[in-house]
Hints:
By secondary structure, the chain is an alpha+beta fold. The chain has 18 helices and eleven strands. The protein is flat and about 95 Å long.
Amino acid sequence: MAASVVVNQHLLCFPSSRNSRSCSWLLHKTCLLTPHRNIHFSLASSPFSTSLSSTSQSPEANTQTAESCVNLGLSLFSKGRVKDALVQFETALTLNPNPKEAQAALYNKACCHAYRGEGKKTADCLRIALRDYNLKFGTILNDPDLATFRALPEFKELQEEARLGGQDVGSSFRRDLKLISEVQAPFRGVRRFFYFAFSAAAGISMFFTIPRLFRAIKGGDNAPDLLETAGNAAINVGGIIALVALFFWDNKKEEEQIAQITRDETLSRLPLRLSTNRVVELVQLRDTVRPVILAGKKDTVNLAMQKAERFRTELLRRGVLLVPIFWDEVKAPELQKKGFGVSSKAVMALPSIGEDFEKRAQSVIAKSKLKAEIRFKAEVVSPAEWERWIRDQQKSEGVSPGEDVYIILRLDGRVRRSGKGMPDWQQIVKELPPMDALLSKLER
């Protein structure tokens, strides 16, 4: 059962003062949420995919407006003058901006703070934009300009707030997550209806049973049988308790499922560098390879990869792509001296996500090029983000953070199997069907 939900698509642009060309501030491309059938240890569902781009032109008008300040800030931003750009975005917020101008100013102000390593200020700006100006959380997840922020604890806190929803960050992200959860568990609403209906029926029955129970206890003529009445009351009370317990259990499972979907969304957006130096997100490899994530100490992971070389041919036939992560070599994300996020070369190599990418990805040419670039091993980009995701996943599964683990993904992005230590490659060769086999086609 798969479903796609279009979350948001709008382009904020304003005309230049002297010509008819428009200046794009904040581009939210179509964001697709594609839930999957089941949830295991971890699954990589099709993500909330968004693409953010900002271009600007210097304002030519003498009078300062929120629009002109944002345009000037973006121009300074593109030249690496982050401090001056930050001043312009802050000024724009004081000039009575309309909602779209305020959203653009707050978001780009957050990018400036992220560049400067100011996690708390970044989170505060994004929190206001989410709450008051309908910023989509998928934009924050997908923007390479915020890669350093996503590796900070402030991002984890903001993501948790967005998952739970509320007055501080709004409820749009939680609504999207609940929609996916409902698709994955379509009978939860039906179950809750029956919980409520049967609880109400037991309550009504209890309302009439209590007076009969008092009469049975007092005894006398025409008094109902005490054992029978007490038995009926016990059945009603037990039924209410059981149904209420099931209702709360179902709610707990829903929260766990939403938390898992949030982690899956984060995983699907983690970047990899292929052997050709092309940077792609994990979701872009869906239907093409089966990534095997190896996380642990360098010696342990290297030994596992050496053992995998013995089965290289068979593993390649099964679409295996090794993704090593070394616990002892993960460093804090470094700040770029100019601009934000990944290099311009990497950005050009990274296809946009959304309808345009979906159309290109369906073409035979695009897929054949991507397959040609994929080899036996890929290098993680933003290793701190990868480590944070794996440690969060370990905590959710009751595994001590920092232990050696492996995660095998399916062709459709869901987790096929995971465990402690390193995998048995011979067993994996027996378990995984070749890429041209019928089972692999059904797995897509």
